[in-house]
């Protein structure tokens, strides 16, 4: 289990299963998770305790399903605490409500059913953003948002490519595992380009349904669909003159691939509800952790779209291949989190550096960042020891692992067999709860209940 947890989260949703699933997902990430089914109790809760992040459902009255309830409670929360960090949740993915909620002060917006990795990333970004707001004085020792640190040959090659590619108009495809810093590279490409003083617009396309994909990227006209009460520009128009970053592009459906290809070929978008195309001038950067060429070979991703998005390709190395960078990054993150938590910047014992260098880092730089933050918070002295760094079962899982037939060990209790089976399947699937549940023949909610039962 994760250690060094910080932060408190409040979840407000009238669906018991949603509350339970979110609590199980988040309890290993933060210090405290509070759930509330009735939004009428919100203000009373907030008067007793301040939460770092609030997950708020947008629809509490199933007969209405307008999202207005969520916007109402968002205003109530922000009236009580203007600095509250609120992430709105909806099952309907209505782009107008998403935009309205962000304009009215929400931090972010997620759609049911959510992707666990993306939800956790949104949470950690929210917590990090809140920490930055609490301490606005930036230290010169802390690198800027687009600084890419590394002295390894692998990362130096990436930095060389960024310098060569950034000033061009080439579309760029960034490949790499989760946590390797794909968006960081995209932002660096933008900031070193001739479009640097124009917008950088980022979209997680994997989180968009087909309907939301069109309205979010291409925009819509008033009356195009229910609740479209005004014209709305899409992300392509918002990025006009600048850079559009499409993250997780390998996850979009074939139908949306076709629509995206048409826009990239014609360099114009047609908003929903309109017959008039709008010219757009964008530099496209895309990213995915999916094996996009394997998908193309199976006709799951269009080859002609790959040609369009991939004028130049950058493949980010996993941290385990960045020899010598673990110590550099660990010290960098130690400086950040020591200052954030009002502690002296620590040293690393030689045995600690050895442990960090020997770890496989399946979660890459993001995992290292969280490991250092936990260590800083829990450390008893100013020299970090090996025992200050603990890795969860998911983090310790090797890249490939089969489930041994340990059930034949007759001395092992049945409950322990079930616990071990669940733990090993989760490790095998690298922490992906949905895939693990499918392999075990369980629903995701049922698996969460067993995780809670066995304290995994």
Automatic annotation (TrEMBL):
InterPro entries reported in the protein's UniProt record: AAA+_ATPase, AAA_lid_NorR, CheY-like_superfamily, Homeodomain-like_sf, HTH_Fis, P-loop_NTPase, Sig_transdc_resp-reg_receiver, Sigma_54_int
Domain Sigma-54 factor interaction: from-to ranges: 148-377
SUPFAM superfamilies: CheY-like, Homeodomain-like, P-loop containing nucleoside triphosphate hydrolases
Modified residues (4-aspartylphosphate): 57
Keywords attached to this entry: ATP-binding, DNA-binding, Nucleotide-binding, Phosphoprotein, Transcription, Transcription regulation
Residues covered by the Response regulatory domain: 8-127
Domain of life: Bacteria
Protein name per its UniProtKB record: Sigma-54 dependent transcriptional regulator
